[in-house]
Amino acid sequence: MSETTENKDQLEETVENGETKQTFKEEATFSNSEELIDEEVVNVEEDTSADESSQAELSVEEYKTKIAELEAKLAEEENRYLRLRADFENLRRRSQLDLQAAEKYRAQSLLTDLLPIIDNFERALQVKVTSEDAQSLYKGIEMVYNALIDATKKEGLEVIPAVGEPFDPNVHQAVMQESDSEKESGIVLKELQKGYKLKDRVLRPSMVSVNE
């Protein structure tokens, strides 16, 4: 009876040992499976991290390219704005100069047309008169001439100096040469027709004779 009980105890121990070994095996297998899963998860995370890093790098490069394009466009627009502003300033200055010139020389056309009339008055005044009627007419012509000269002077008309002045091709027109040993060469000896200027602009050069 004790022998049977002992055998039974041995059998139960054997069964328990077998179950324990089986449990250890199952636990070992499960542990290995968990390790494999962890490794796979780690690998997946590493791959995902690498992909995200690559995408991040591409995104940075794309941003850099986009920023460079925008900076180039900005520089182009700034240059265009500066050119337009310079053109506007030049146009404004030209407009101001044109307005000033128009105001300064507003009487140029009228005065130019009056020059032949002034010449005729001066020729008429060079005629010598003796009779009383002629002298009265002469005085009337002289009064009109003086009034005309005063009016043109107010508008800026000036007579160009000629006789005794050095010849200046900007204001003198030489039509003949003469010789006078008492005068320096290039001096204007005679004035054949008066020259006029409006302020600093020549309306008609003086016709002169110049010393050789």
From TrEMBL:
Q: Which gene encodes it?
A: grpE
Where in this protein does the record put region Disordered? Answer: 1-32
Report the source organism.
Ureibacillus thermosphaericus
Report the function annotation for this chain. Answer: Participates actively in the response to hyperosmotic and heat shock by preventing the aggregation of stress-denatured proteins, in association with DnaK and GrpE. It is the nucleotide exchange factor for DnaK and may function as a thermosensor. Unfolded proteins bind initially to DnaJ; upon interaction with the DnaJ-bound protein, DnaK hydrolyzes its bound ATP, resulting in the formation of a stable complex. GrpE releases ADP from DnaK; ATP binding to DnaK triggers the release of the substrate protein, thus completing the reaction cycle.
The parts of the chain that form a coiled coil are 53-94
Q: State if Repeat is listed as a keyword.
A: no
Q: Which GO terms describe its biological process?
A: protein folding
Provide any one GO MF term from the record: unfolded protein binding
TM ranges: none
> What segments bear the compositional bias annotation Basic and acidic residues?
1-11, 18-28
Q: Assembly state and interactors? A: Homodimer.
Major location, coarse class? Answer: cytoplasm
Where does the record place it? Answer: Cytoplasm
Family from the record:
Belongs to the GrpE family.
Identify the NCBIfam families for this entry: PRK14140.1
PANTHER family in alphabetical order: GRPE PROTEIN, GRPE PROTEIN HOMOLOG, MITOCHONDRIAL
Q: Which GO terms describe its cellular component?
A: cytoplasm
Query: What HAMAP family does the annotation carry?
Result: GrpE
Pfam families assigned to the protein according to its UniProt record, in alphabetical order:
GrpE
Q: Which UniProt keywords apply?
A: Chaperone, Coiled coil, Cytoplasm, Stress response
- This protein is called Protein GrpE
Would the keyword Chaperone be found if you checked this record's keyword annotation? yes
